[in-house]
Structure formats: C-alpha cells, structure tokens
Amino acid sequence: MPVTPAARCVPGASSTPDVRPSAAPSRARDLADRAAELDRRMRPDPRPDAHKVVVLALDGVYPFELGIPHRVLGSADGRYEVLSASVDGEPVRTDADLTVIPGHGPEVLARADTVVIPPYALSPDPAPQALTALSRVRPGTRLVSICTGAFLLAVGGLLDGRRATTHWALTDYFQELFPQVELDAGVLFVDHGDVLTSAGAASGVDVCLHMVRQDHGSEVANQVARRCVVPPYRDGGQAQYIERPLPPASGTGTGPTRDWALQRLELPLSLDELAAHAAMSTRTFARRFREETGLSPGRWLTQQRLRRARHLLESSDLPVERVAHEVGFATATSLRRHLAAEAGVAPSAYRRTFRAQGPVAGDVRDVSTTGSAR
Length: 374
Known about the structure:
two-stranded antiparallel ribbon, 15 helices, alpha/beta
C-alpha cells in the first residue's frame, strides 16, 4: 500500500519520507534575474550625449505626475538623463501625505535641455522662488507643463499670445487670470516646439511619449510605451474627458457608425449618410456624436483621415496625391492644407522627417502639434 503524506508524519512509520530537491532556489534566482533585467531596461544609465531633462518640483507637487517624466523618458534606453530639482534644494511637500527630496537644487536648471513642471497646489500668488528658479533656464530650452504647471509658465509670461491647455476644471480660473493666453481646454496637449502644455494626470504620459516620438521617432516611442504598459499614443487634439452629462444608455449611439466610417474613409462621407447609417436625424446624430467624442462629425472625420495619411506617409512611398485619395481628401492640396494646420508641415516634409528617424513599416504614429515638426 502506498505511503500517503499523512502516513509519513506518523511517529514510528517505517517508510522513509520522499524528499526531493526543491526548485524554489532556482525559481528565485530566475525571478531575481528577470527583475534585474526589467530594472535595467526601465532605468538604464544615461548615454554620454543624453538629453538632460530637469523636473521642477514645486510646493504641493502631485506625486503621480512628478514621476511621469522619470518613468517615460527614463525608459528610452538612456537617451534622456532625467533629474529632479526643487526651487531651493530643500525637501518638497507633496499634495499627499508624503514629502519628497529632489536630488538637486535650482542650479541644475541652467544645464537643462528640457524643463518639465508637474502640477502643484495652486495659490493666488506663486512663490517668488519658483519664478526665480525658472529664470535660470537658458533661452531655447524646451519647457513642458503638466496640468496646473501651465499656471507657472503663464505667470512668467511664457504663454502670452500662445495657444495652451491645462486641466478642463480650471478653465474659467485660468482664463480670468491670463486673458492674454489662448486657452484650449478641450485637448490633451499643445506643442509649440519650444513650449508644450498638457492637461491633467495621464496626459502627462501622452506629452512625454510625444516628445520621445518627436525626438527619436515612433519605433523608440512604441518601445517606451510597451515598457510603461501604456498606449503608444493618444492624439493631442483628442478631447479631454470633460465632465458632462452622459447620453442616455441605449443601442442607438454613434459608435457603430464611427466604426463603419473608419472602413470607408476614402469615400466622401456626408453628415446625412452618417446620420442615415445611425438611423437618426442629422440634428440628433450631430448632438449625440459631440456628446460621445467631444468633436463634430466633420472634425472627427478629418482627424481620422489625417491619422491614416500620416501612417501612409511614414510607411509607404505612395505619392502625396495617391495618399490624399486613399484617405478621402478630394485633392492633394486639401491634404496639404489640413496637415499644415494640424502638424505645421507639408506632407513631403513630414515624410522626410520620419524617414530620417528610421520608421518601421506598418507602425502607426500620430503627431498633433500646433508648431513645426522638430
């Protein structure tokens, strides 16, 4: 009769326990090796020519956004050296129940290629030390704000006469304080090349990935996105998730029609055709569409056509006229006009930029900027 595990525990049992070498130490070593490899990929040593990024932590900084540049830019195989600094070299109180100790004081700002200002607890008058620290930044340094970080840029006059964004909930407050800034609270980020502003929380991830894509191309940006387990891109012109009443739950939403339209972008789709597919009147369809996407049907179609055009420009040798036809623009001139409005460049210049960065065929990218491509 076989000896059961229970029988082996009986005092005096004549059978010797079946003791096998444990696999636990081997598995532990394997796990440790994998963890070390992941850590190496997520936090590689900066390259000698790494782009220096300084994240300026202000009093009341939000911890999540404070860490975004380190996580995203720091995952780009050492192409960026990401440092954090405070305005006085002292520990910084966050808006949570913790305090952080940046590794540097404001002096490091003078050596930065890019300065990121994460969100912080707003006060009627920003600390003079914050503006003094910002004055250390060299002319030509790229400036990036996340959420309320735009307030410091605006106080410093760096957004005057420019289009910018911040968290949608602060729209009225921002416009009241800074009427000289063209605020667009309906987008995820705005890129002027030298100054970028982004909306709340996760849009900080979007704008950092956008910088990687602009600096090093989509192949690198997609690798970084995979390591950070986030989508490779969200269109900068995509509507923020603005709090608004949800449309009534039903089976008559515009989602199926959007899917249908995406399969027919090369056709001259009209509002009447879209509404007929959704079995709605044109007025009801347009209202539902805006409630669900934050965009008009025409604007949404243009964005989708531009997205597909970018993909074809990056991944094929099709002439611009053929690209325009494939994505539903009536003429190459129409494609040029829309792409220039969205990305600030002509199709041929857009193609040269990304071909120089070594794009991968079939790799879908999106560059939604208001300035020229970098």
